[in-house]
Specification:
The protein is 33% helix and 14% strand. It has nine helices and 13 strands. A hairpin with a 6-residue loop joins β9 and β10. α7 runs parallel beside α9. The longest helix is centred in the C-terminal third of the chain and has 23 residues. Bound molecules: pyridoxal-5'-phosphate. Pyridoxal-5'-phosphate binds next to α2.
Length: 353
């Protein structure tokens, strides 16, 4: 082995859901939104000539629009290349203690990857037998806390009262609430920003705004923590946000009606789909997200996953302790969910014969 091999950072990367190349698939595996971005986003990027310039490093058009939308000051908003970038930057900025950071055992599987990458000690507290957060597990010494609400991949929303309890018990460390799915159900922790100086709320345009391909995420907090994030960003890459993202992201925020309509459609389809597959013997955890986490009363999840894939329907399966008999199914259009339900109906019937 060459001597330099000791100097290489060795990490086991996060594995995202498959992005199949063929177009004749029903894709319910990465929680994308089936409706596409607001029509205002289309054709807005006319001035291609302006791409010769570096974008505004402060991303002010988008920051200002988001500040207006959420009723906060622009100094309270940080934007990044998807919430993955915002979260990674937050880990780097806020989690610099020798004490372990805390997050649940079943959660977004990027958290432990970032902790490993940045050499941050961490401990995972087990969710209870109903996959609920145990808030008391977070009432101990720690170097920071992060969890999604609603949680992924369970879709379970934790009551804001309990979220506040966790923040209140941890005023010596930063608490990051990852609200990737909050638009599909539940009360945001944004209302607590003025009350607690240790709270950072992270959001994304990838799910509810249907813009996963553009990569936009943001954090809202107090000006002190947002400045700390910006200082780290400017020490790393001043131009994380490209010009098309700034322009198209801003247009999306301006079209609240389209946003609300499409989110409501996804929620209605979720209710309809849960009811349909319940009749086929599936049990779904109560979802507040744009996906459902489902298990079948008799058929192993892995078998269903593989059969669906053969039928060109992609869902997500995690070969991990406690959740290896569940499928995470993203909510597509009614037509897509009907097609998947039809497939399941036939599959369950043939399996039982
Ligand atoms: C999808 C997701 C993200 C990342 O979304 P981006 O596309 O990077 O904005 C972050 N956290 C959770 C819990 C997610 O499910």
């Amino acid at each position: 082995m060459a001597a330099w091999s000791d100097n290489i950072r060795v990490v086991e990367p996060y594995v995202p859901g498959e992005q199949p190349k063929d177009s004749d698939v029903i894709k319910l595996n990465t929680n994308e939104n089936p409706y596409g971005p607001s029509p205002r986003v289309r054709n807005i990027m006319q001035d291609v000539e302006s791409l010769r310039l570096y974008p505004d490093p402060t991303a002010s058009v988008l920051v200002n629009e988001l500040a207006k939308y959420h009723g906060v000051d622009p100094s309270q908003v940080f934007v990044g290349v998807g919430s993955d970038d915002v979260l990674a930057m937050s880990f780097l900025t806020f989690f610099n203690s020798d004490k372990p950071i805390l997050f649940p055992d079943i959660t977004y599987s990027f958290y432990d990857v970032w902790a490993e990458l940045f050499k941050i000690p961490y401990e995972r507290s087990a969710l209870d037998e109903n996959f609920r957060l145990v808030k008391e597990d977070y009432y101990r010494e720690n170097g920071g806390i992060v969890f999604p609400n609603p949680n992924a991949p369970t879709g379970i929303y934790e009551d804001i009262i309990n979220v506040e309890e966790i923040i209140r018990h941890n005023q010596d460390s930063i608490v990051i609430v990852d609200e990737a799915y909050i638009d599909f159900g539940g009360e945001s922790a944004l209302g607590l920003i003025d009350k607690y100086d240790n709270l950072v709320v992270v959001r994304t345009f990838s799910k509810s705004r249907s813009m996963a391909g553009l990569r936009i995420g943001y954090a809202i907090s107090n000006p002190v923590l947002i400045k700390a994030l910006n200082d780290v960003k400017y020490s790393y890459n001043s131009y994380t946000m490209n010009l098309p993202s700034l322009i198209m992201g801003t247009e999306s925020v301006k079209d609240d009606e389209y946003f609300r309509n499409t989110v409501a459609k996804v929620v209605a389809t979720r209710t309809r789909f849960v009811e349909a597959i319940r009749q086929l013997g599936f049990i779904c955890l109560h979802s507040s997200a744009n996906f459902v986490f489902a298990t079948h009363e008799s058929i192993p999840a892995k078998d269903i996953f593989e059969a669906a894939k053969k039928a060109h329907i992609y869902v997500r399966y995690f070969d991990k302790p406690r959740i290896d008999n569940y499928l995470r199914i993203s909510i597509g259009t009614d037509e897509e969910m009907d097609a998947f339900t039809d497939f399941l109906k036939k599959y369950v019937q043939s399996y039982n014969n």
